[in-house]
Amino acid sequence: MTLFKQILIGSVLFIFIILGIVAIKDYKTSNDFIQTQLQINAEHTAKSLGLSISTLSEITPDSVGLLINAIFDSGVYEQIKFLDANSNIIYDRKLEEHAYYGVSKWFIDLVDFTPPSVEFEIRQWNKIGTLIVQISPVFAYEQLYTTLKDLFISLGIICALSLIFVFFALKALFRPLELVRQQAEAILENIFIVQDKLPFTQEVKKMVQAMNSMVGKVRDIFEREAGTIDRYNELLYKDERTNLYNRRYFINQYEQNLNSEEYSNGFLFVLSIKETYNVKKILGFAKALNFFNELAAVLKTYEKENVFILNENDFAILSKNRQEFKRECINVIELVKELFEKYNLDSSEFKVNAALAYFDKIKYNELLVRIDHLLLRAKNNFSIEENIAENELLLGKQEYKDFILNAMNNDEFCFVQQDVLSNVELLHSELYLRLKLNGELMSASFFMPIVSALNINEELDMYVLSKAISNEFYAPIAINISNDLIKEKNYKLLQKILKNKNVNQKIYFELAMNSLINISDLVAFVKFIKQFNISLGLDHFALNKEYLLALNELNVSYLKIQASMLLDLLEDNNTSGAKNAMQTIINSKGVKIIAIGIENSEQKEKLQKIGIEYMQGRYISEIK
Length: 624
Fold this sequence. Notes:
alpha/beta
């Protein structure tokens, strides 16, 4: 139980005790006051009536009864009785029936009230008789009930106001502590946030300052180590002249796409400029450097990340399967032509050609051979030789959309899975989607480019989640999701789907890391799925500064990184600084590293030597 609840309950109990004591004391006071008043009234009545009887010339039942009835009918009395000197009853008048007005029966049964009775001895020279007067309890109950009702209404209002005041006072008092609690919980989940607004209370303020200081130091270490890894990445994968990714990174990226479900097919565009060293001779060093920087910017017009320099003369753009990519390549060629004209470079002195090839699950060296053959066929400058017949579309967009939606409605998709293993345990099985078509199971690379082009990722994600939740799996599973799913607008429908989740089934949502992800949306999404005992993993995670700093804001269970990238960065003895930086980041975030794309025993052994425990790939586990 939280401190807020403990203090709130204690305050409520204290208020109830105080008000209970006040209520009991007021009840006793009111009861005693009414008893006293009735006693005085009874004595007054007995004396005045006794004196009236003593003045009678002849004391008879009729004369006495006349006086008693006059008094009895004008007041609230239980009994008035007159006894002679020998204690014989001369006249006795009793209340036959009690009539309580506005008093609940439960109150009468609960409250035991004994009405006062007074005896008055009437004397002249000798004792004439005794007058007994007893007040009726009706008046006492009515007075006491009305008094207590008003009292409890007042106490109820006071209690309600007190509770409201205590609640909001405690809220205001504990608001700084609530922020401290949130910060502490974030630290436990390896998320490092700083409180900008310091609380007024000195003790809490010092606590917040201490936590901020600790978080600041961790952040500084995290950013410093991220910068270290990024610098090693730049040395490994960046070309100094153009700042583009080099051939080594291209190979890693291509193999990563080849091992993925969605991007194992697509396009490669290569721009070849022969004798680029002549650019420096013609323009000079500084101007030539500007030329190549502008050339790199032209190549990044449509693809920001997957642009590479393969060698001194060849530049490449790797794209997923998109219909509009050919048109974009033609535009790039035109922009390159304009760039040559801008720098007054005579295109006749250079051979500028381009090749565009479609690939589908072929090795990178086979693809590059295909590109070389296309470039050899090129005759005219600024022309594109292409080999994309395999990707010609047979249907229009609407027909493809209807095709995919019908497949979902008819449940023509199914799951296959691949295990993520260590030497001692199964971490999870990643689910892959397959489409049943003409007796074959088509992989995601067949339909996902269509799904992305038609913007129906959300519909497919919801279908996949519903299907996965409704199936029974005997091991933890990882479900791939798209960028679109993490948006807040999907929470309502997601909640409806996820509430049917088996509480004992461990599920991971796996998101391919990319620069288009909104980190704020992802942070909120991680908090949302946590209530369903679902964790997040990031696939195709690149070890660059942008992704590592984004990781600092997130609470994720694992990162899937291409095995070749891990070996490039961590295997070489000269990159011990990167290895230490990587270890610091992993320890501070508490995440697991999963090497993906393991194709042979050599890779596995090398990864084990550098301390990678979890692995995935066809050598580790076949898709089944």
